[in-house]
Write a structure and sequence with these properties.
mainly alpha
């Protein structure tokens, strides 16, 4: 299993813990942890060469 997949599993686990959290502070804490794990997974994919650096990506224009 790739390292980034393990990070995504950790993010999913944190989201599950957030759903079962006993209060708002715990909910927010688990959500922030999930965001951190997701960011690590994205970074690992970049380090592994699975995604292009931002400068090499085509810009996508968003229209209202």
């Amino acid at each position: 299993m790739k390292q980034s997949d393990l990070f995504r599993e950790n993010a999913d686990n944190c989201l599950q813990l957030a759903e079962r959290a006993g209060g708002e502070p715990a909910f927010r804490r688990y959500r922030r942890m999930a965001q951190g794990w997701s960011a690590l997974a994205f970074e690992q994919d970049w380090l592994d060469g699975e995604i292009k650096p931002i400068g090499d990506r085509k810009e996508v224009a968003l229209h209202d």
